């Protein structure tokens, strides 16, 4: 069973703090129809440590935990659930919502917080569609590579970088391979094991040449 208002360890604080970025990322991705709340069980009277789109309930940082959140926590603990529960509910305005409560565990597996996601079912369809459409000023859509293994990921990334560089007429032919390596470096491809020899093979150059380009790129970054 979770204990409330019990001081956290430093590690507990780090775990909960790391979830703040998760809240921000989810809210940005899902849009204004979702209220995302991060609760800390260290102080249930001021449990809300992060909330986005709080206008749905009028809550702000420092608000207390709700009776429903505590009820969902009890169900997670007592009903052999995997650490989360989804349900339908209404806020105090009577607005219908679909919600999820996800337990956050700290040192020793103790539940130290809750991530609550509330989707308001009365959100206008136009608002939902707006959140799915790229803004006019956004750069072209980014391509994601789905590979079955890291070798395939490296090879596909090299081909993607090559296509991008070759299509840029402002890059001199003698600098093409260097720019491909620079792109792969920015994409963190060279953090993958055996990425240098795979890149060299795909570009038909030596591994030493890849290392040379990579070293020059890193030196320019540090300059």
Could you please describe the fold and organization of this structure?
The protein contains 7 helices and 5 strands. With 223 residues, it is of the alpha+beta class. It has a 5-stranded antiparallel sheet with strand order 2-1-5-4-3, sandwiched between helices. The protein has helices at residues 10-30, 67-78, 125-132, 150-166, 176-186, 195-203, 207-222; strands at 34-40, 48-52, 84-90, 96-105, 111-120. The longest helix has 21 residues, at 10-30. The radius of gyration is 24 Å and the shape is elongated. It has 2 domains: 10-132, PAS domain (Beta-Lactamase); 150-222, no CATH class. InterPro entries: DauR-like (IPR039446), DauR-like_HTH (IPR039445), YheO (IPR013559). It comes from Ruthenibacterium lactatiformans. It holds the Pfam family PAS_6.
Q: CATH superfamily of the largest domain, called what?
A: PAS domain
Overall 3D form: elongated
What integer is the average pLDDT? 88
The CATH class of the largest domain is Alpha Beta
- Output the radius of gyration: 24 Å
* Number of individual domains: 2
**Main beta sheet strand tally, sense and closure:** 5 strands, antiparallel
Fraction of helical residues: 40-55%
Number of strands: 5
By DSSP (H or I, 4+ residues per run), the number of helices equals 7
What do we call the CATH topology of the largest domain? Beta-Lactamase
Record the strand order, biggest sheet. 2-1-5-4-3
How far apart are the termini? Answer: 54 Å
């Amino acid at each position: 069973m979770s204990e409330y208002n019990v001081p956290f360890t430093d590690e507990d604080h780090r775990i909960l703090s790391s979830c703040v970025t998760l809240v921000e990322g989810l809210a940005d991705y899902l849009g204004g129809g979702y209220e995302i709340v991060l609760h800390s069980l260290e102080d249930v009277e001021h449990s809300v440590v992060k909330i986005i789109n709080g206008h749905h309930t009028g809550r702000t940082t420092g608000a207390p935990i709700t009776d429903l959140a505590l009820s969902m926590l009890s169900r997670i603990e007592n009903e052999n659930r995997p650490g989360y529960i989804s349900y339908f509910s209404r806020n105090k305005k009577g607005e219908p919502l679909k919600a999820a409560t996800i337990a956050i565990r700290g040192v020793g597996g103790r539940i130290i917080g809750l991530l609550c996601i509330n989707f308001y079912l009365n959100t206008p369809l136009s608002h939902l569609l707006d959140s799915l459409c790229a803004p006019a000023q956004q750069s072209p859509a980014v391509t994601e590579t789905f590979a079955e293994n890291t070798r395939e990921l490296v090879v596909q990334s090299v081909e993607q970088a090559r296509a991008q560089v070759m299509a840029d007429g402002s890059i001199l032919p003698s600098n093409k391979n260097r720019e491909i390596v620079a792109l792969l470096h920015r994409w963190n491809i060279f953090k993958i094991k055996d990425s240098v020899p795979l890149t060299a093979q795909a570009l038909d150059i030596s591994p030493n040449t890849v290392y040379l380009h990579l070293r020059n790129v890193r030196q320019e970054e540090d300059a």
